[in-house]
Amino acid sequence: MEPRIQYAKTADGVSIAFWTLGEGTPLVCMPNVAWSHVQVEWQWPGYRRWYERLAEKRKLVRYDSRGCGLSDREVADYSLDAHMLDLEAVVQRLGLDRFVLVAPVNAGPLAIVFAARHPERVLRLVLWCASDFRQSRFGAFRALREGDWHLYMETLAHAGAGWSAGEEARRTAAFMRECAAPEAVVAAMAALWQADVTPFLSQINSPTLVLHRRELASVEMAAAKAYASGIPGARLVLLEGDSVLPWVGDTESVLEAIDDFLSEGEQAAVAPAEPAAPGGFRTVLFTDIVGHTAIMRRLGDEKGREVLRQHERITREALKSHGGTEVKTMGDGFLASFSSVTRAVECAIAMQRAFAEWNEARPSTGSGRAEQIKVRIGLSAGEPIEEEGDIFGETVILAARVAAQAEGGEILASLAVRELCAGKGFLFADRGETALRGFENPVRLYQVRWGEPT
């Protein structure tokens, strides 16, 4: 059955056609810019089998870029920022906060920019035969386009599909003629020609897989190597073949590489949190964003939510790295627990350093530095009560009260945490005794010094 085509409206008023297939982790497949038509693709047996395979374990989202396919064709703006609006409109229409981004060929530069700008939203990034339009081969194609449009389409189709692809190459040329008007293709390509995404590579922190076929004629391998070397921790996988069409040639190797890569993230995401044994000794960590209500009032719901997503991403990454159990989130804060007091303190320090780095990287605005995330963290240790995945009791209350005494960017700990960390190399500053609501006697608090190496 053909997926139901729906529409999303961009911030600049362009209607974007899309469909979804399957259930599970959202897998957003970006359009190969200028060559996109969600309806014709589904009618093409090779394309349809490819999409069905991708959707076997996940929810596949496929959309047409502006000016192409079933999206609005009367469009003036084909810039990278405009293409970002297309993606934003679709994921917002579907209510997707976080998703895997798959970018074939010409969509590569667009995905790189989006992943760099929105690291909290991109779970994983897959670049398939990603192009770099500054390469000389694209210059040759552009010269041909300006001289003979029909020959340009045929040549580009055969170079992309593979010179030995035969029927698939001929079908590719026919497909390309369906996708967009010549003037739209020229405008979209011109925008990509101006794009240098090199400065964005180092800003990507989403796990990234760069896939490329060795004998590909239309896109040089140098682009894949440049992207893989520029994106921190990116994985480069070179496959045999000469076609940008993943269903031509050794399709199983492509699917296996993608599935293995995505499965790593999904297994980590669903890995069971470390259970808190009833009556067991735990270190409890409590976080709270300073001025959360004021931030939401200043920025509004959408931009304020972006700040919250950064807080959530940084906190969850730190908890995962240090063996913490996320008990619950309260929107502007987290409650977590640890079996190890050392790892709890290390996690708190890692969080504050990550928040500080993110704040430092924020661009300045006309009125000063952009919105910052200032988080206070409180730590206590004891034997909380566990019921149905939640924890209760004096230890939890103490962590919340300790956090409330902290300033933004500060970590405060109870006496028990300080004593259990003796000889572990952490730096503590005695803040003296403080009266806390709900506690009969004053509580001695200690500041964890995280600015200095530990």
Summarize the structure.
The chain has helices spanning 38-43, 45-54, 80-94, 108-117, 136-147, 149-161, 167-179, 182-193, 198-201, 221-230, 251-270, 292-321, 341-361, 394-405, 415-420; strands spanning 6-9, 15-21, 26-29, 59-63, 99-104, 122-128, 208-213, 235-239, 282-289, 325-329, 334-338, 364-365, 368-369, 375-382, 385-387, 390-392, 411-414, 428-434, 443-448.
Verbal overview:
With 454 residues, the chain is of the alpha/beta class. The chain folds into two domains: 6-270, Alpha/Beta hydrolase fold, catalytic domain (Rossmann fold, 3-Layer(aba) Sandwich), CATH 3.40.50; 282-448, 2-Layer Sandwich (Alpha-Beta Plaits), CATH 3.30.70. Helix content is 43%, strand content 21%. The chain contains 15 helices and 19 strands. The strands form four sheets. The chain has an eight-stranded mixed beta sheet, sandwiched between helices. Helix 5 (136-147) packs antiparallel against helix 6, helix 6 packs across helix 7 and helix 12 crosses helix 13. The model is unreliable at 269-278 (pLDDT under 50).
Specify the number of helices: 15
Per DSSP E runs of 2 or more residues, the count of β-strands stands at 19
Query: What's the multimeric state?
Result: single chain
- Major β-sheet, in short? 8 strands, mixed
- Structural class of the secondary structure composition? alpha/beta
Rg value: 26 Å
The overall pLDDT average reads 85
By CATH's scheme, which homologous superfamily of the largest domain applies? Answer: Alpha/Beta hydrolase fold, catalytic domain
